[in-house]
């Protein structure tokens, strides 16, 4: 039976507060900061009272799951047009055991640290918006890091950034990768309307590229969809979602296509991020969304980069099955882009997928696919994730 990790010798809150002061992060700009800190310390207490389910037959690695601190849920009561679900670690562990999942890769979902840039709660004071974004980033990262310290046998995690604030994001990523044990980073399809391939973000990608070259040869970047926005001349952000339908029904797929397009394109404001930083590996949500459908037409605009980009889509992109992606949508990748199943990884989108689709049916779409061998399915379920993270996660 699994057990929670032992209590750290240094008081947790002292460490968190001391590191925040060191890094010039002011938690007090967030009215809920004390609640957030209390929730972090409560995790270990809750774990001590948790009855662990049986994982003896579990082998799968779920690469697309989201922790939701209650204070973050209160801040974002709606997610992609639906009520933000509740989450707690014991319930997540039970879900995992029921679906043969041994380990989950946790990453906070939209809006991550960009809550105060959303049109519904836009902070007009630019300095205060920046401070709030950075403080929220740190609290989210400390929370998820502690979840993984408490349940090390079953959770790994990806750190969030404070983009579009590049210098602060680099500092945070250094902290989370080197001190908190993150196994990669998670970014949104846009940050205040700026897409990942924008030259404004090159400092972050350059830092990760250098780190990868000095380390084990790769860094993992998870791209997760969020709502599209447009920045007005006065600096305000307004929604640019063209459809009255909620984003989860399709807009997130188009956002994913925009993000992939941005890191591929070489025309301003983009600069071939995908090719310029060859040691970055990109974890792509929902089977690449709408990108396979537009890829042929899109790449016509970049004939010099198209061949190398197609190769990168086959070797440095890793596509999850949260969707539903299997058995039909995935053919846009396999038959359209020529991506091999060795680049496919397993994902459920827990807990956001619950109630949106039948999780059992979503998994069955992969399990019952008659065009994929059992060996390849096992690769998708867990071996490919191990290959992607190169020993940074346990099986």
Your description of this structure?
By secondary structure, this protein is an alpha/beta fold. It has one domain: Metal-dependent hydrolases (TIM Barrel). The chain has helices at 12-22, 33-48, 70-75, 89-98, 126-150, 166-180, 202-214, 251-264, 273-276, 291-299, 306-315, 331-337, 359-367, 374-389, and strands at residues 60-65, 78-79, 82-83, 101-106, 155-157, 159-160, 185-188, 219-224, 229-231, 237-239, 280-284, 317-320, 344-345. The protein has a six-stranded parallel beta sheet with strand order 6-7-8-11-12-13. The protein has a three-stranded parallel beta sheet with strand order 1-4-5. The chain has a two-stranded antiparallel sheet with strand order 2-3. The longest helix has 25 residues, at 126-150. The protein is globular, with a radius of gyration of 20 Å.
Q: How are the SSEs ordered, and which strands pair?
A:
Blueprint: H1 12-22, H2 33-48, E1 60-65, H3 70-75, E2 78-79, E3 82-83, H4 89-98, E4 101-106, H5 126-150, E5 155-157, E6 159-160, H6 166-180, E7 185-188, H7 202-214, E8 219-224, E9 229-231, E10 237-239, H8 251-264, H9 273-276, E11 280-284, H10 291-299, H11 306-315, E12 317-320, H12 331-337, E13 344-345, H13 359-367, H14 374-389
Parallel strand pairs: 1-4, 4-5, 6-7, 7-8, 8-11, 11-12, 12-13
Antiparallel strand pairs: 2-3, 9-10
Helix pairs in contact: 2-5, 5-6, 8-10
Quick structural summary:
The protein has 395 residues and is of the alpha/beta class. It contains 14 helices and 13 strands. It has helices at 12-22, 33-48, 70-75, 89-98, 126-150, 166-180, 202-214, 251-264, 273-276, 291-299, 306-315, 331-337, 359-367, 374-389; strands spanning 60-65, 78-79, 82-83, 101-106, 155-157, 159-160, 185-188, 219-224, 229-231, 237-239, 280-284, 317-320, 344-345.
């Amino acid at each position: 039976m699994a057990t929670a990790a032992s209590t750290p010798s240094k008081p947790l809150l002292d460490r968190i507060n001391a590191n925040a002061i060191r890094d010039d992060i002011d938690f007090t700009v967030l009215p809920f900061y004390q609640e957030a800190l209390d929730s972090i310390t409560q995790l270990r207490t809750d774990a001590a009272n948790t009855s662990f389910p049986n994982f003896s037959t579990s082998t799968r690695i779920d690469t697309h799951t989201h922790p939701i601190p209650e204070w973050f849920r209160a801040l974002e009561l709606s997610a992609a047009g639906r009520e933000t679900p509740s989450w707690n670690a014991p319930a997540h562990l039970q879900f995992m055991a029921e679906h043969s999942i041994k380990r989950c890769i946790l990453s906070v979902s939209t809006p991550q640290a960009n809550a105060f840039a959303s049109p519904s709660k836009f902070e007009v004071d630019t300095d205060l918006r920046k401070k709030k974004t950075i403080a929220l980033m740190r609290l989210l990262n400390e929370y998820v890091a502690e979840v993984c310290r408490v349940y090390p046998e079953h959770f790994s995690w990806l750190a969030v950034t404070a983009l579009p604030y590049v210098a602060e994001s680099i500092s945070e990523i250094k902290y989370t990768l080197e001190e908190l044990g993150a196994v990669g980073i998670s970014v949104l399809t846009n940050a205040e309307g700026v897409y990942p391939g924008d030259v404004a973000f090159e400092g972050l990608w350059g830092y990760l590229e250098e780190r990868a070259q000095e380390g084990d040869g790769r860094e993992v970047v998870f791209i997760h969809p969020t709502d599209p926005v447009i920045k007005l001349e006065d600096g305000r952000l307004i929604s640019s979602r063209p459809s009255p339908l909620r984003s989860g029904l399709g807009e997130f797929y188009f956002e994913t296509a925009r993000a992939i397009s941005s890191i591929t394109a070489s025309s301003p404001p983009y600069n071939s991020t995908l090719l310029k930083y060859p040691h970055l590996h990109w974890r792509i949500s929902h089977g690449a969304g709408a990108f396979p459908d537009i890829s042929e037409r899109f790449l016509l605009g970049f004939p010099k980069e198209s061949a190398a980009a197609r190769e990168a889509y086959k070797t440095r992109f890793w596509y999850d099955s949260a969707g539903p992606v299997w058995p039909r949508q995935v053919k846009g990748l396999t038959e359209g882009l020529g991506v091999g199943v060795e680049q496919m990884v397993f994902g459920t989108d827990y807990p956001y997928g619950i109630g949106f689709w039948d999780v059992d049916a979503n998994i069955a779409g992969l399990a019952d696919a008659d065009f994929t061998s059992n060996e390849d399915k096992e690769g998708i379920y867990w071996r490919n994730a191990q290959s992607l993270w190169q020993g940074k996660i346990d099986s």
